[in-house]
C-alpha cells in the first residue's frame, strides 16, 4: 500500500478546454477513494494522469513522498483495472495475470508465487487454464483485478470497472472488490458515475464538477450534508427550497422562512448569507397527524404520483404554497389525491450555498 498526494493538478487540452482545475487531494495509505461525477467532469482524465497516460499542464503527483509526475506508467508503483477489462484474448487466465510480473523481470519462482496468491485472492484457481472467452463478465473482472494484484502495486486505479456488468452482478463484484481491498490494504482510486456504487464502497468520495472539486468527504457526510446544490442533486434525490434566514432558534439551530412555512435547521456552522437554499432527502419526511404537527418544520401536501420500489414507495407530493413537487418515501403506497401532513426533523435539513 502507498499514500498518494495530488498537488495543484491542472490539465488543459490542446483545443484550450481546461478539464482539470487546481485539484489537490491527499490520499492515505490503504484508503479507498472514489472520484465521482457526471460525464465530462474530469474524473477519468485525473485517473489516467495519475497512471501516467496524460501529461499535466501543472501540478504534481507524489506516491509515498516520491515525485512520480515525470515517470512513465510502469515506474509509478500503480496498476490499473480498465472498464473493458483489457484481457489478452489469446492468453489463459494464468498468462494474463503473469504478463505484468514477467515484463518486470520477475523470476520463475516469484511468478509462481504471485500467480498462486492472486488466483487465491479472487477465487479463480479452478479457471487458471481457461481463456477469457470461457469466463463470465464477473469472472473476467476478477481476472483483471488479479492481474493488478500480481503487480504488487502501492496504488490500484479503477476506471469504472463494473459498468459492463448487469445490476445484480455489479452489486456482487462491488462487495468482492471492497472486501479484497479491506483484507489486503491496497490504496484504491476508483472512478465511477454511479452514486450508489460510490456510497457503498468508499472511505471518502471526491465529487467533481467541471474539472473542479465540489466536495470531499465520507459517504454519509456527502449524502447527509451536501455543500452545494450540484452535490445535493447529483448524490441521490434531494428536495431543495429557497430560504431566508430569520435568526437563531437555539444554540445550534437556525430558523428560516420558505414557501412551505418556517423551518428550524440544526447546523454547527454559521450561515454567512441572509439568503440560502435548504435541502432534505425524501426519506427524512415523515407523515404526522395534523393535530400533533408542530408550528415549524411541517407542511400539508397532496399526493400526485408514486412508484412502488419494493422495500419503499417513492411518492411525489405538491403543496399549494409552492409550485415545486417534492419527493418523499413511504413504506406503503398512498392514495393519489390524498392530503398528508409532513414533518422534516431539524437535524435532517442542511444549508446549501446560495450561489450553487
Describe this structure in words.
With 356 residues, the chain is α+β, with helices and mostly antiparallel strands. It folds into two domains: 4-225, Rossmann fold (3-Layer(aba) Sandwich), CATH 3.40.50; 238-352, Beta Barrel (OB fold (Dihydrolipoamide Acetyltransferase, E2P)). 24% of the residues lie in helices and 35% in strands. It has helices at residues 43-51, 93-103, 108-121, 137-150, 167-184, 195-201, 219-224, 229-234, and strands at 4-12, 18-27, 32-36, 58-63, 66-67, 78-81, 155-159, 187-192, 204-209, 212-217, 239-248, 253-258, 261-266, 275-280, 285-288, 298-308, 313-318, 325-330, 339-344, 350-352. The strands form four sheets. A six-stranded mixed β-sheet has the order 6-7-8-3-9-10, with helices on both faces. Strands 13-12-11-14-20 form a five-stranded antiparallel β-sheet. Strand 17 (313-318) and strand 18 form a beta hairpin. The model has no long low-confidence stretch (mean pLDDT 92). InterPro entries: AAA+_ATPase, ABC_SmlMolc_Importer, ABC_transporter-like_ATP-bd, ABC_transporter-like_CS, Mo/tungstate-bd_C_term_dom, P-loop_NTPase, Transp-assoc_OB_typ2. One of its GO terms (cellular component) is ATP-binding cassette (ABC) transporter complex. Belongs to the ABC transporter superfamily.
Q: Which radius of gyration do the C-alpha atoms yield?
A: 24 Å
Mean of all residue-level pLDDT scores: 92
**Percent of residues in helices:** 10-25%
Low-confidence stretches: none
What is the CA–CA distance across the termini? 37 Å
Count of DSSP strands? 20
Architecture of the largest domain, CATH level 2?
3-Layer(aba) Sandwich
Order of helices and strands: EEEHEEEHHHEHEHEEHHEEEEEEEEEE
Rough outline: elongated
Structural class estimated from helices and strands:
alpha+beta
Q: Helical region count?
A: 8
Instruction: Give the strand line-up of the largest sheet.
Output: 6-7-8-3-9-10
Which strand-content bin applies to the residues?
Answer: 25-35%
CATH homologous superfamily label of the largest domain: P-loop containing nucleotide triphosphate hydrolases
CATH topology of the largest domain: Rossmann fold
Major sheet size, sense and barrel closure: 6 strands, mixed
Number of domains: 2
CATH class of the largest domain: Alpha Beta
Amino acid at each position: 500500500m502507498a499514500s498518494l498526494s495530488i498537488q495543484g493538478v491542472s490539465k488543459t487540452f490542446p483545443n484550450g478546454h481546461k478539464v482539470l482545475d487546481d485539484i489537490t487531494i491527499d490520499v492515505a495509505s490503504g484508503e479507498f477513494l472514489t472520484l465521482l461525477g457526471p460525464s465530462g467532469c474530469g474524473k477519468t482524465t485525473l485517473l489516467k494522469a495519475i497512471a501516467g497516460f496524460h501529461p499535466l499542464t501543472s501540478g504534481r503527483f507524489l506516491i509515498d513522498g516520491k515525485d512520480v509526475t515525470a515517470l512513465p506508467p510502469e515506474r509509478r508503483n500503480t496498476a490499473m483495472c480498465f472498464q473493458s477489462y483489457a484481457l489478452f484474448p489469446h492468453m489463459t487466465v494464468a498468462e494474463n495475470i503473469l504478463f505484468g510480473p514477467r515484463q518486470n523481470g520477475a523470476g520463475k519462482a516469484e511468478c509462481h508465487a504471485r500467480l498462486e496468491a492472486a488466483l487465491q485472492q479472487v477465487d479463480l484457481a479452478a479457471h487458471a487454464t481457461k481463456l477469457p472467452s470461457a469466463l463470465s463478465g464477473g469472472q473476467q473482472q476478477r481476472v483483471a483485478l488479479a492481474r493488478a494484484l500480481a503487480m504488487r502495486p502501492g496504488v490500484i486505479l479503477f476506471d469504472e470497472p463494473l459498468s459492463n456488468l448487469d445490476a445484480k452482478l455489479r452489486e456482487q463484484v462491488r462487495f468482492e472488490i471492497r472486501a479484497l481491498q479491506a483484507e489486503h490494504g491496497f490504496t484504491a482510486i476508483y472512478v465511477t458515475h454511479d452514486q450508489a456504487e460510490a456510497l457503498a464502497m468508499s472511505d471518502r468520495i471526491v465529487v467533481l464538477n467541471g474539472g473542479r472539486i465540489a466536495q470531499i468527504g465520507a459517504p454519509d457526510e456527502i449524502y447527509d450534508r451536501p455543500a452545494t446544490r450540484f452535490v445535493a442533486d447529483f448524490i441521490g434525490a434531494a428536495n431543495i427550497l429557497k430560504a431566508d434566514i430569520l435568526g437563531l432558534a437555539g444554540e445550534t439551530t437556525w430558523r428560516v422562512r420558505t414557501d412551505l412555512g418556517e423551518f428550524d435547521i440544526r447546523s454547527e456552522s454559521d450561515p454567512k448569507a441572509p439568503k440560502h437554499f435548504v435541502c432534505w432527502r425524501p426519506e427524512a419526511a415523515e407523515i404526522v397527524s395534523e393535530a400533533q404537527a408542530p408550528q415549524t418544520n411541517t407542511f400539508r401536501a397532496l399526493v400526485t404520483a408514486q412508484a412502488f420500489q419494493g422495500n419503499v414507495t417513492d411518492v411525489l407530493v405538491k403543496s399549494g404554497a409552492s409550485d415545486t413537487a417534492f419527493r418523499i418515501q413511504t413504506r406503503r403506497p398512498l392514495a393519489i389525491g390524498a392530503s398528508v401532513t409532513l414533518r422534516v426533523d431539524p437535524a435532517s435539513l442542511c444549508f446549501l450555498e446560495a450561489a450553487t
